[in-house]
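2024-03-11 09:14:02 DEBUG pipeline.ingest accepted 1 chain
2024-03-11 09:14:02 DEBUG pipeline.ingest length=288
2024-03-11 09:14:03 DEBUG pipeline.predict start
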Amino acid sequence: MAADKTKVWLITGCSTGFGREIALCALAQGERVAVTARRLESVADICRQFPDRALALQLDITDPNQRSAALRDTLDRFGELDVLVNNAGYTYVAAIEEGEEAEFRAMFETNFFATLEMTRLVLPYFRERRRGRILNNSSQAGLMGNPGTGFYSSSKYALEGLMEALTKEVAPFGIQVVSVQPGAFRTENCGRSLQRSACRVPDYEDTVGQRLDMIAAIDGRQPGDPVRGAQIFVKLGTMENPPATLILGAGVLQTYREKLEGIQQHLQEWESVSISADYPPDETATKR
């Protein structure tokens, strides 16, 4: 594919936040975009602004029929697809003990299983063409677990593991997979889109409660700029050799470095115990 060729994008969850900004940024740069949302009216203004290059599609990614229709309609309108952006998702917060099964399973259905199926849907098409790119809007929660966000982290950790394996599976076919881990960005993730368990256990107030109150308190004051973040996403969709993963935001970069330093210290401290689980070297040949 020529570097200057206009690409076709299919972006999930474009009504607000990152999805909306990625769509607007890609369209402003001349790309063609299937702009999806559960409610078409929430993206109608985007299509009015870019009537020739934007296609509004109704998509609840947990609905198999709507997923299939979104891909079919994108191909019918634009004739091809180059970039899938897995953006749709939401946050459910609670202490592990407080979690409501129906609620955290529903979040997993959206954040992991539906995203998995959306990805699987485009893979045969990309594989046949021997090219294509999948961008995942993951989260710093996919790198680090903290009180109150265990369920959300679990859904993102699962996605990270899946995409790490997928990256290695599809590389021979010219398909590139990129997972992005944003920190705290000024979207509705800590506001309207944040769902919190109705169950509260007083014993967790000093850990889970304080952290969730902190998350709610920074709403509207997060350091991350979603427009700048979206511009980076679009670059990842168009550059020749994108990274397999990318952290967005100074805060998450610092805290992840601290986590990695802790992991290194832990590995060194327990190295002898880890090694002691193997057969001694002089016994290995005997056991074969």
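2024-03-11 09:14:41 DEBUG pipeline.report The chain has a mean pLDDT of 91.
2024-03-11 09:14:41 DEBUG pipeline.predict end
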